[in-house]
Amino acid sequence: MYQVIASDLDGTLLNADHMVDAYTAETLRLLQAQGVHFVIATGRHYLDVRGIRDVLGVRAYLITSNGARVHDWDNRLVYAENLEPEVARQLLQPEFSEGTHLNVYLDEQWLAGSQAQWLADLHQDSGFSYELADLPNHSGEGIAKVLYIAEHEHLLTVEEKLIERFGDELYVTFSMPDCLEVMAPTVSKGHALTAVLAELGIPAADCVAFGDGPNDIQLLQTAGHPFVMGNANPRLTDALPHVPQIGLNTDAGVAHQLRKLFHMAEPKN
């Protein structure tokens, strides 16, 4: 029996414009009316995702910053894990950030080291945006996530430097090919989903989950019924070769799969 649906956003639940489509929103609202619980699990900031949840029109737990923050449907903070300040300060230095667009997530802020209108445009559903900051001189306090944005090939070199310097002292993952994200070592979407399921009193065996990126590996490993998007990153499909693949996010693949699982009729035109 499926009681919980957990889904990533970009590349999974959202369309090519990083927005919610009407078909997906209708599908989730109909399932909620049947008593199904929802969990949004994403690398995005909590304040951003709260706005997307409002657009979807459903009550949902929010796993954000790749699991560094968990809020319930009433916006109560359930779980929080920050980077160690000294480590965070090192991550903000040019040794790692040179050649990238550097970003930092705190509880109430999204800080960026330089202007990038295209990045703000990705958050048009919620209206959430960044503030410019002198990140190399930040105290490192209260940082949930450090995010480097650049061409994938360059980020591979950054990833290599981070692993060489910090090893398992950090959780380093790609949310998208051009987004390399760094959190505390105990953070993951899977760990956060376990906390949410415990709050709900629902076993992982009754959870369906969807994802498309390497930062979804632990999420899909935790859920009893995982699904990989047809547009998934090869790192994800290589890590979970036996997980079924479904349609594309550009074709509302999650909503179509949910209608199959729950034996829902398609809307009449």
TrEMBL record:
Its cofactor is Mg(2+). CDD domains: HAD_Pase. Pfam families: Hydrolase_3 (PF08282). PROSITE patterns: COF_1, COF_2. InterPro entries: Cof, HAD-like_sf, HAD-SF_hydro_IIB, HAD_sf. Keywords: Hydrolase, Magnesium, Metal-binding. One of its GO terms (molecular function) is phosphatase activity. Belongs to the HAD-like hydrolase superfamily. Cof family. This is Cof-type HAD-IIB family hydrolase.
